[in-house]
Amino acid sequence: MAAKYARITLSFTATWTKGKDAVSANYCADYEAQPSAGCAFFCGVTHFPNKKIPRNLYRYLTTQTATMYKALLPSFLFAILFASCQQQPQPQTDAPQPTACEYLDYTTNDAVQAGGIHMVKLKEGYQVWTKRIGNSPTMKVLLLHGGPAGTHELMIAFESFFPQANIELYQYDQLGSYYSDQPDDMSLWTIARFVEEVEQVRLDLGLDSTNFFLLGQSWGGILAMEYALKYQQNLKGLIVSNMTADFDKYEAYNNKLRAELPKDVLDTLSFYESKEQFQNPRYLDLMYTAFYKKHICRLEPWPEPVERSFGHFNQVVYEYMQGPSEFVPGGILKGWSVWERLKELTVPTLMIGAKYDSMNPAEMEEMSHLVQNGSYLYCANGSHLCQWDDQQTYMKGVISWIQGVK
User: Which end of the chain is least crowded, N or C, by CB within 10 Å?
Assistant: First the structure.
């Protein structure tokens, strides 16, 4: 979509002396403002042909008038943004929707504003990083990234879609992740403590059952389901993206996908696994080329935020909870399951699966029937990170579902 510009023209009168006579001529200065970027630009000077302006005076007027936009910029943007607020088209929903200007008012409670970034202080004495984007009274989404100990960078794609739908979103790095505190106390890395962390974040951000949607992807899906089983009274909606409700089922499906790899690849993987050399460059390269590019993210190359997030993983926490490799799960999550408890969930719930995912999409669909108020979104071209590699299907489906929850 092309950027929207508005042109403003200001008229002036220049007076100079020619011999003994005073001569005047009208001229105008043109400015262009782009409200979405918060900026305005001086375009140039033109003059009305009632008098010929000397060349040196014309150059002087151009130079002087170009500097005037600095003083006039606030007035330009206020006028144009005010007009855009009146004209901004709104989605067709029953609930009142914020105007463009209201949506853009997402200040935090901090004394110094930092572009929506707010550090939440936990009862354990640590801080976790959050970032607010947007302002909606009825649709506020807290995003739970995967990992464990990944980063919000895996979820940056939502920032390109949710604002257009007037959905307020919160990026969030869980404790131990790159942008939050990273304590070395291993007793902190339990599902139960993470659930209580999410509840502390919810309270700090002021989310409640009239507006609070929780979206968890991968490990974030485990955390979202566990949170909902304890605190669903605080939720308006739950979204579980690319995560089965049973870790043993995940392990079994991964083994199925592994068995489809060429024999020479399997032999090499087994060789390094037998020596517990999971960080060996050759092992990591095989995991990336033979498995991750097929089942984690199918884009080539990977989007920069995805690459950045993988570079920011806290490997210590990841291995403690998940295990040393996708193919060797053995952390504290091994044996985890809430499959039999899904029937306890009454909150509106969306399950998301993808054809090429490392999670069985058939299980995600089944889970949507096991909860009491479930829906299912299938990404036919996506993998584990289908918010990236089947983006249009994913985002359209998620946004439509959120807007449909009453």
Answer: N
